[in-house]
Amino acid sequence: MGEGTFVSRSNTGTKKTRPLQMPFDMPMLLIVVVILVFGLLMVYSASWDFSILNWDDPTYIFNRQVRWIILGLVAGTIISFIDYHWFKKFLVPAGLATLALLFAVLVVNKGADDEGGRNLWGGSIQPSELAKAMIVIYLSFWLYRNKDTFNNFKMGYFPLIIILGVTFALIALQPDLSAAVTIIMLGVIMFFLAGGDWKVILIVFAATLLLGVPLMYLYPTGRARISSYLTSLNDPLESSYHIQRSLEAVVKGGWFGVGIGQAETKFTGLPLAPTDSIFAVIAEETGILGGLFLVTLFVLFIWRGFVIARKAPDQLGSMLAYGLTIWIGIEALMNMAVIVGLMPFTGNALPLVSAGGSSMLVTLTSIGIILNVSKASAKHQAEERSTRSAVVDLRGRNGRGRVSRHNRS
């Protein structure tokens, strides 16, 4: 926790220093602010030409990103001041609303192409992003409430399979295979954090591989991405056009980059430069060192999230902080790994950096929940210190009691 000190004077005239506790984890806040500022700079650099071509305004996408960040900060701030135990009152309605949005995607976008079939309201809302955060939050409460029975098949495994299966199916049918696989991964991770049986975790993981890989081959997009990835392992020049252009950007950037705003690949056909491929723009303009700087920021983010989870006042807070931190870390890892050819193309946004409303809003709101847990931890620690101080103050400097005796006026 970020701490400062102040000086107070006791009754005896001696100076005493006490820690000044901040309401939130200050290192986490600083890391998030740095990533947001860096992301805004790179979004403008990656999008101004695209904005001119489509809207005749070089700041169109940048301005939209600023608005989404402000909205996300407001939502995250509000939710950080609400005791996370109260979330259970809204858990079922929020979960049903998420499933309804996923179903609406299938109805509204029936027959649309791969990318267009994932969004609502002209591309402004992508419900699968909300589903990832909701699965972590819902399972945190569900596993915490059923911690004594979730290792029982009828009371634990079966409901868990239903929750994950319905969400997985609705997302896979869009199709958004990377988001669907992420849902299963998060479910397994949450089950592990809750103390689930290792045997069950291994069975679920094996079943995911056995069912997930054939399912990907059923869809032309998934089949093309896997085939392209396997081919690129032998010869990067045979990888997909998207990955070839991304690797070209990384190579051009070298160690120190070509300079902010000076990248060429974003002008010559790099797909989705402001969104999915923004890490390629970062690598070209700031070099390997700039890419490592961003990687370091996300590593620090994960570290602080784990510190908050470890200090949480109860298991529920710990699961929320661990789960949401791991989810954001997975999203960042998958996005950056795709750009350098370490994974098949997934379409995951780079959290807090990629241009996009749904990802930004959901991510900042989730960070608000993590800070909520840190606030509860600080309050819990302050109460413990207050209790210890009250016990100590019952004694005087010479050990005699300060409390008035029954025969003392």
Commentary on this structure:
It is globular and about 60 Å long. A hairpin with a 5-residue loop joins strand 1 and strand 2. It has one domain. The longest helix has 36 residues, at 357-392. With 409 residues, the protein is mainly alpha-helical. The two termini are 46 Å apart. It has a two-stranded antiparallel sheet. It is 66% helix and 3% strand.
Describe the structure concisely.
Helices cover 66% and strands 3% of the residues. It is mainly alpha-helical and 409 residues long.
DSSP helical segment count: 12
State the secondary-structure class: mainly alpha
Biggest sheet features:
2 strands, antiparallel
Shape annotation: globular
What is the N-to-C order of secondary-structure elements (H for helix, E for strand)? EEHHHHHHHHHHHH
**Radius of gyration, rounded?**
25 Å
Mean of residue pLDDT values:
82
Cα separation of the termini? 46 Å
Low-confidence parts, pLDDT < 50 over ≥5 residues?
Answer: 1-16, 397-409
- Beta-strand percentage? under 5%
Number of extended strands? 2
**Count of the domains:** 1
Helix content: 55-70%
> What is the spatial order of strands in the main beta sheet?
1-2
Key structural traits:
409 residues; mainly alpha; 2 strands; 66% helix; 3% strand; disordered N terminus; disordered C terminus
Write the layout of secondary structure elements.
Elements: E1 3-9, E2 15-21, H1 26-55, H2 60-80, H3 88-108, H4 127-145, H5 153-172, H6 177-193, H7 198-218, H8 220-234, H9 241-253, H10 278-310, H11 315-339, H12 357-392
Antiparallel strand pairs: 1-2
Helix pairs in contact: 1-2, 1-10, 2-12, 3-4, 3-5, 4-5, 4-6, 4-11, 4-12, 5-6, 6-7, 6-11, 7-8, 9-10, 10-11, 11-12
